[in-house]
Amino acid sequence: MSNNLKITSSKHNLQILHEDNHLIVINKRVGDIVQGDKTGDKPLSDVVKEYIKDKYNKPGEVFLGVVHRLDRPTTGIVVFARTSKALTRLNELFKNRETHKTYWAVVKNKPSKKEDKLVHFLKRNEKNNTSKAHLKEVPESKIASLDYSIIKELQHYTVLEIALHTGRHHQIRAQLSAIGSPIKGDLKYGAERSNPDGGIHLHARKLQFMHPVSREPLMIEAPTPDDPIWNAI
Predict the structure, then answer these.
(1) What's the pLDDT tens digit per position in 41-77?
(2) What is the per-residue burial (b if ≥16 Cβ within 10 Å, else e) of 165-199?
(3) Residues whose CB falls within 8 Å of the CB of residue 89, separated by 6 or more in sequence, listed in order
(4) Euclidean distance between the first and final Cα of the chain, in Å?
(5) What is the pTM of this model?
(6) Is 172 helix (H, G, I), strand (E, B) or coil?
(7) N vs C: which end of the chain shows fewer Cβ within 10 Å?
(8) Are residues 15 and 27 in contact, defined by beta-carbon separation less than 8 angstroms?
(9) In this structure, are residues 150 and 115 in contact, taking their beta carbons and an 8 Å threshold?
(10) Can you tell me the distance from the alpha carbon of 13 to that of 37, in angstroms, rounded to the nearest whole number?
(11) What are phi and psi of 209, to 5 degrees?
């Protein structure tokens, strides 16, 4: 929707999916940057700190730990730790792959198989901030694997559900591009044109993990952005 272009998150419009004493989970918008970088744009972590400070009238600095990141043009679930205890344990969960991450991706070219496991060796290029997927191991590459399945076919696009097994730089984007199915709007990885809002149609849809303190199982789901293609799903 044109009225949705370039809306970034602020403390007033944060899309909060879960909040308790130890963690807060946000549905990230296109263009939100999770952690500060060389652009100097205000990161989502600072926005969440402002929200917590206001809501709980906290004096002084608010503690907030960044546990993982999502690429700037991607939308969906981002988890932040509100206590150092939660941060330590969440870091362990993510490092040991004790989290189940599900993504949705919209691609123009339908993959040849309805479902498949993709295994590549990803090599990162720091200069142009991309990763290239190779079928065989190359120097300085890291193994990357995911499962995908087609969940919906639209008139011009195909919607994939992706279960991520490794968390490599631009992994889903590079692997789908390698099989000839780049994500809609992802110019960096072979899409024909960009999306009007500068985003790509990749959404961190679902995250399952054990709560770092209560040890209760958590299943968080993020609504897709409001645009005609996501709405058709």
Answers:
(1) 899 999 999 999 999 999 899 999 999 999 999 999 9
(2) beebbbbbbbbbbbbebbbbbbebbbbeeebebeb
(3) 212, 213
(4) 15
(5) 0.94
(6) helix
(7) N
(8) yes
(9) yes
(10) 22
(11) -165, 165
